[in-house]
Amino acid sequence: MGQGCNSQNSDVFSFALLSFELLTMVKPFDGKAADDQDFGESTGIEFPWILDQHDQSNSIDASNLMLLPYLLSKPLLALFAQTFEEGKDKPNLRPPLWIWRYTLSSTLDVTVRCPHCGMSWVFTEQESITCPFCETQLTVLTANCDGSLVYAHECTQDPFYLPTRLFAPVTTTADVPCLQVTLLSEQRLRLSLTAVKQEELLWALAGQKQQMLNSVVSALEVALPTLQEQELVLQSTHEPRWQVNLTVRGNLHTVASATAEESINARGPHD
Predict the structure, then answer these.
(1) Which of 120, 259, 114, 260 minimizes the C-alpha distance to 189?
(2) Do 158 and 69 lie in a common domain?
(3) Is residue 1 domain-resident?
């Protein structure tokens, strides 16, 4: 693989090995063929990786893969496949680290955490917005760009942030928070710029006139039921003009209950 010398390509392979195990709790080359051998200090890399589509001689039991779609996004899984299949014996075909960084960040953007059980998973646009671990119904804010899901986050009492990379993917500030999203009472969301002196965004509900978020008007509020029926369109003001469409999916009753409980706790039991 690395012919005994360290290089950026060998670093990529080591990074992929470690990342796959950390994300899935499964070693990428620890399959049934590897189990039949006495390696000593070997790691089993001489065998195909456990998800190899062309050689399944070192696969693992399907029951150990049931959670895989919840742990790895499709683009991230494709990077592992490229590294462990073609890139295994051809180091120059391994994806460079900057692609790993971008794909991991994009996967994090669509990772949802259940406020009930605390488990996290990669969100997909399924019809039922339900935690796959405890079956709690959630309310999720999603963002789409050119028809693809680029962001998802559970709606809870804790504020969260939309990163700059949603509106300007190729920039040194891609990871910097751009918009803070806060759940207000009466089922309303507030979106506010985090750095009003540097940022400007155009926004509009689908089919309506565009308005500006800037240093003069740095926040907007919108009702959750409205976002279930209409898209909130956000667009950067710089070329190229990236556009994302925000919607809310799931059970709004769970948000209403959480908001009411938070309001009672804030006032205190004897107020």
Answers:
(1) 259
(2) no
(3) no
- Counting the structural domains of the chain, the total is 2
- Domain extent for 130: 112-267
CA-to-CA distance for 262 and 271, rounded, in angstroms?
14
Residues 181 and 250 in one domain: yes
pLDDT in tens, 93-104: 999 999 999 999
Question: Quick check: is 176 in a domain?
Answer: yes
43 & 155 share domain? no
Q: What is the pLDDT of residues 232-270, one digit of tens each?
A: 999 988 877 789 999 999 888 766 555 444 433 434 444
The tens digit of pLDDT for each residue in 13-58 reads: 999 999 999 999 989 998 887 776 655 545 568 889 999 988 888 8
Is 107 within a domain? no
